[in-house]
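Propose amino acids for all 291 sites.
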């Protein structure tokens, strides 16, 4: 009883510290660049019949996140709407505080998505969230809240090295999970002891480049390996060269025991009819894909 009460107080406290205006949204597409849009005023530049891609940054970051430009430029080339989320009002706080507020922030983002869907006639199953680190779990909380609020699911969530600290070994209701969208894929690049990423398969399709550990080729300092996941994904938006094989482990993959198994590809064109864990090797520098 006491534990439940404490938990309820903590949740209420987190919600009281988050408001709708704390979260900002910026639109890019073939019509506009860096246009701020609002929950009840989406402007006139969203292309209704084009895909919707939400970018969600991680801890300590903002709309100027290191991977946003690459993702939005590649997606705009494909004709998509890109909505960059800025939740820096809360991502710039202590890690524990940012983690505690994710569900509340996700609730407001879910309301934004629901309003966008209703106002512009865009089905939520055409909406794709791409989140890095804490942003991966925030995308998951957005999906959970959207389902709870409206009974609708996001079409896809891509988790780019979802954060490990505070999320390892907990209930799936408290982190990104494959039920948060119709399709969930993850790229894990900094798992293992001392890594910043989680060591768990959270999606329908999970990619483990170079074994997924915190020693990605060409990385020698923190957080290089953690930040490789979004760089791999950005390249994979336009490239189908991140060929991977389904396998039970990195060891078996390196021994060649999985070379006849089904393939999949990191990036925009993930094949969700082939699920499981997939392994591949990459180059040390861009272009990272080996084909």
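Proposal:
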């Amino acid at each position: 009883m006491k534990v439940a009460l404490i938990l309820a107080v903590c949740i209420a406290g987190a919600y009281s510290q988050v408001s709708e205006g704390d979260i900002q949204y910026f639109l890019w597409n073939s019509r506009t660049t860096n246009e701020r849009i609002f929950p009840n005023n989406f402007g006139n530049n969203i292309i209704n019949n084009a895909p919707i891609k939400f970018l969600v940054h991680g801890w300590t970051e903002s709309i100027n996140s290191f991977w946003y430009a690459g993702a939005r430029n590649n997606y705009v080339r494909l004709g998509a709407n890109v909505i960059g989320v800025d939740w820096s009002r809360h991502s710039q706080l202590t890690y524990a505080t940012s983690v505690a507020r994710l569900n509340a922030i996700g609730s407001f983002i879910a309301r934004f998505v629901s309003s966008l869907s209703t106002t512009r006639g865009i089905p939520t199953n055409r909406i794709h969230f791409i989140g890095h680190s804490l942003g991966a779990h925030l995308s998951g909380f957005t999906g959970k809240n959207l389902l709870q609020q409206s009974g609708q699911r996001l079409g896809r969530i891509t988790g780019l090295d979802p954060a490990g600290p505070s999320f390892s070994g907990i209930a799936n209701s408290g982190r990104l999970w494959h039920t948060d969208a119709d399709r969930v894929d993850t790229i894990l690049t900094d798992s293992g002891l001392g890594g910043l990423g989680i060591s768990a398969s959270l999606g329908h399709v999970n990619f483990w480049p170079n074994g997924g550990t915190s020693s990605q080729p060409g990385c020698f300092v923190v957080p290089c390996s953690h930040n490789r996941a979004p760089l791999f994904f950005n390249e994979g938006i336009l490239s189908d060269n991140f060929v991977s094989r389904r396998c039970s482990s990195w060891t078996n993959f390196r021994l060649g025991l999985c070379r006849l198994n089904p393939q999949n590809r990191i990036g925009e064109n993930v094949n969700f009819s082939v699920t499981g864990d997939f392994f591949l090797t990459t180059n040390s520098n861009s272009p990272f894909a080996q084909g």
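The helical segments are 2-16, 68-77, 88-91, 95-100, 102-120, 134-150, 224-238, 250-254. The CA atoms of residues 159 and 186 lie 4 Å apart.
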